[in-house]
Q: What sequence folds into this?
């Protein structure tokens, strides 16, 4: 599935993503984007914070309470904030568009 990813400079790249892997790993390992992910995808660092294009928000699995509590704490929190390590890429998300949030 393709991922349209906008980095912190506003540059968009299209990544040929892999299903079954988190969005964070797709953005960082496949797409080479600058995501620290210092907790390794364990939902405890919030450095994988992205904004999901509103049209795609409802296609995602509902976020967990743990994820919400962590991302809501970010000073850059918006309604379409998600932690990309908590989103699993699937073929159904082909074409998803996300923007990296500024670093806190
Ligand atoms: Fe740490 Fe997502 S990688 S919360």
A:
């Amino acid at each position: 599935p393709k991922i349209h990813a906008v980095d912190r400079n506003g540059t968009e790249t299209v990544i040929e993503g892999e299903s079954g892997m988190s969005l964070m790993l797709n953005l960082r390992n496949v797409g080479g984007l600058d995501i620290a992910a210092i907790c390794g995808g364990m939902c405890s660092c919030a450095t994988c914070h992205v904004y999901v294009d509103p049209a795609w928000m409802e296609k995602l699995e509902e976020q967990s309470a743990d994820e919400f509590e962590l991302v809501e704490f970010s000073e850059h929190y918006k309604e379409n904030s998600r932690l990309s390590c908590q989103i699993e890429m699937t073929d159904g998300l082909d074409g998803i568009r996300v923007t990296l949030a500024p670093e806190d």
Observations:
- The pocket of FE2/S2 (inorganic) cluster is lined by residues 24, 37, 39, 41, 43-48, 83, 85 (CB under 6 Å).
